[in-house]
Design a protein that fits this description.
Order of helices and strands: EEEEEEHEHHEE
Number of strands: 9
Radius of gyration: 18 Å
Largest sheet: 4 strands, mixed
Number of helices: 3
Structural class: mainly beta
Length: 189
């Protein structure tokens, strides 16, 4: 593993879900020396919107410099996740032991090189993002057949997606734009 960022990750549940629904999103940096040593819990933050985030278009932004990485919604003054990359290295932040894959790099490694951006509407999983016993979750995080149990109950949750009638549960992306600090723009559509 190196580094990646979930710029925007939201649950598809409606906003009445107590653990956060379509009115909440999180930004998370995933990093660590290996896939099973991801220290993401130290670099994750969430935002709660007054209404469903699906009720309109929003700007999910990220500013990444050598010393700082932060995400925001709609305006740079509305910061969601703010990571200081000048105070300690990610190796030190993670408290890792063993061989440091970033030992000859700056404190901002692995975020001193290109990394992946992820835009995600989560619909399931067994890592605790969808807590057991909440929001009518039809499986347990410890079940060896959780994915089958989730699929087998699709008649309960699939209608809430309003698909294909309205497609309201879909993530709709108008554009993705990337600028360098020098002002060069790359436009991806």
């Amino acid at each position: 593993m190196s580094g990646e960022i979930d710029l925007m990750e939201s649950r598809g549940n409606d906003s009445s879900c107590t653990t956060g629904g379509n009115n909440v999103f999180a930004s998370t940096l995933h990093w660590g020396p290996a896939w099973n040593a991801d220290a993401y819990t130290q670099t994750s933050a969430s935002y709660t919107h007054p209404a469903s985030l699906g009720d309109g278009m929003h700007t999910y932004g990220m500013v990444w410099t050598e010393d700082r990485l932060f995400t925001y919604i709609d305006d740079e003054s509305n910061i969601v996740l703010d990571v200081n990359m000048s105070d300690a290295s990610f190796w030190e932040k993670g408290g890792f032991t063993g061989d440091n894959p970033w030992k000859n790099q700056g404190k901002n490694a692995p975020f001193d090189k290109e990394f992946y951006l992820i835009f995600n509407v989560a619909v399931g999983g067994v890592n605790g993002y969808f807590p057991d016993g909440q929001c009518a979750k039809p499986y347990s995080n410890t079940s060896p057949s959780a994915s089958n149990e989730f699929y087998d109950t699709k008649d309960q949750w699939y209608p809430s997606w309003n698909y294909p009638a309205t497609n309201q549960a879909a993530m709709k992306i108008d554009s993705v734009r990337v600028w360098s600090l020098e002002g060069d723009e790359k436009f991806i559509q």
